[in-house]
Amino acid sequence: MKSVAGIFTSREEAGRAAFELERGGIARDRITVLSPGASPQEIASVPTDEGEQPGTGAAIGAVVGGAVGAAGGLPIGAALLSLVVPGIGPVIASGIIGAALLGAGGAAIGSTLERSLSEGLPKDELFVYEDALRRGRSVVIALVDDDADEAARGVFEAMNAETIDAAREQWWIGLRDAEASQYAPTEEVAFRRGFEAALHRDARGLPIDEAMPELRRRYPDLIGGPAFRRGYERGQVYYLTMTGEMRERLRKSA
């Protein structure tokens, strides 16, 4: 099972894409829509647990009915959860994939189902989705078998969704000037891979030595280089800066 995703400029467009995916034969519980959610004023008074795993959203809303989905441009009948995600703020997640990816888990989706989905969850793309949400975009994610891969991509292409690869490149272009002093031109690839590795959901907040076993598995050809290590350290600073700024903004608006 693999993930296929597209980024849309509005929640309504994302909802239509989710409908087309389901109409094409992809099960509803394999489709999710992530959209910017409630206003900061509505969630400012909701406490977040400082001991949470970095990147975990605190659930602030119960599962709600399909009428909300229909009114908000989300799939009719989808389970919606309102989450506070560090570095982003309020997010509405429809579908169990979104709950698992953003860390709601638990009673919201059930531990057995979460384990069954974990292999296909696009954890290494999470930072791209987060950047899209910060820009007010909505993200549609489908977990599909190999034989449904092209059909899902066809839906996104037909609806002019921004691809994850294109969004990832734009994200890095936005950071390149600020980070250029940290690496030589020939080191950019290794530095960037290290930077992105630090934003993987399972690495967030971990010093590189603690993350080393998993990094060695995923980046065996780069892990020994100084550029990769510098990139990882800068990625951790980026993540902590983003989440710290959001927490401070919510605190001041409380």
Task: State the gist of this model.
With 254 residues, the protein is an alpha+beta fold.
Please supply descriptive tags for the structure shown above.
14% strand, 254 residues, 11 helices, alpha+beta, 2 domains, seven-stranded antiparallel sheet, globular
Fold and architecture overview:
By secondary structure, the protein is α+β, with helices and mostly antiparallel strands. It has 2 domains: 163 residues, no CATH class; 71 residues, no CATH class. The chain has 11 helices and 7 strands. The chain has a 7-stranded antiparallel β-sheet, with helices on both faces. Helix 6 crosses helix 8 and helix 9 crosses helix 11.
Element layout with pairings:
Elements (H helix, E strand, L loop, with lengths): L1 E7 L2 H13 L7 E6 L3 H4 L14 E2 L6 H7 L7 E6 L3 E6 L1 H7 L8 H8 L7 H9 L3 E7 L4 H10 L3 E2 H16 L8 H10 L10 H11 L7 H28 L1
Antiparallel strand pairs: 1-6, 1-7, 2-5, 2-6, 3-4, 4-5
State the helix count: 11
Order of helices and strands: EHEHEHEEHHHEHEHHHH
Low-confidence segments: 39-72, 105-110
Radius of gyration: 18 Å
